[in-house]
Amino acid sequence: MNEPWKNVMDKLRGWGTAFIEMLPNLAVAILIVIAFVILARIAVRITRPALGRISSHKQLRGLALSVLKTGILLLGVFIALGVLNLDGTVASLLAGVGVIGLALGFAFQDIAANFMSGIILAVREPFHEGDMVTIGSFEGSIERLDLRATVGRTFQGQIVTIPNKDVLGSHIINFTTSREWRVHVDIGVSYGDDLDAAEAAVKDALESVSERDESKPVDVWYTGFGDSSINISARMWIRNDTQSFLLARSQMVKALKKTFDERDLTIPFPIRTLDFGIVGGKELSEALPQVPERDAA
């Protein structure tokens, strides 16, 4: 009964002796950790203004500062463990972190892909909040860019969340980055109207639009023969603004209709011409079979 008790007490004395011998190293390790905590705060304070000049993305700056702070603190912890002669513990921790990271990478690969895509988008900055863009099938304005997804608003007012992986893999058209937009409206003119007069009317109508950029000319092109009209593509340039784009297109339609009415030019309705002859020009009465009249009784 005394022998087990003695073994326990010897073990505890050995631990106590080892702890006392380790006290100087423990004090040094604590000082190292405190020093690295202070160093991490100083590094974050110095780096924050520099990141503000590099990127305007708040979440990306916060992520970079967190990674910097965590990296400095982990370095301090590993050095402190080395002072305490716990190198084996450090190796075990690193191995464990690697295994856990590998497992999480397989389990959350879609989340990781969206996260990395968000970082790339934040660095490249193909668009900013408020920009009018086309991303794949989405058309609208950007509400915000998170590290996992991009949130946009369609022209109809719906909020759309697009995973950053899909955003990075899609064609992106940013209408806001350009300082000018070209707005076009298609219109038809009757086959019986004079084409030169119609072209002059379209140009005069578009030149009266208030949203037009007067430094650029109006473009009018005949594009082909339609079912009931000769088709015209009317184009003009405006200043870069979402509301100006919609307003300009509305003004173009109103101005074209008003000018065509004033000059007796016709915007045709869809019509059909029935042709009963191979050569054409055959009257309906000639195409229909003649029915002999019955003699009156």
Please outline the major beta sheet.
5 strands, antiparallel
Using only CA atoms, what is the Rg?
38 Å
Q: Shape, please? A: elongated
Distance between the termini: 144 Å
By helix and strand content, what is the structural category? alpha+beta
> What ranges have pLDDT less than 50 throughout 5 or more consecutive residues?
none
Order of helices and strands: HHHHEEEEHEEHEEHH
How much strand content do the residues show?
A: 15-25%
Seen as an oligomer or otherwise, the chain set is single chain
Helix content: 40-55%
User: Largest beta sheet: what is the strand line-up?
Assistant: 4-3-2-1-5
Question: Number of DSSP strands?
Answer: 8
The helix tally amounts to: 8
What's the pLDDT, averaged over the residues?
A: 80
Query: How many domains comprise the coordinates?
Result: 3
Characteristics of this structure?
three-stranded antiparallel beta sheet, five-stranded antiparallel beta sheet, 54% helix, SH3 type barrels, 297 residues, 3 domains, alpha+beta
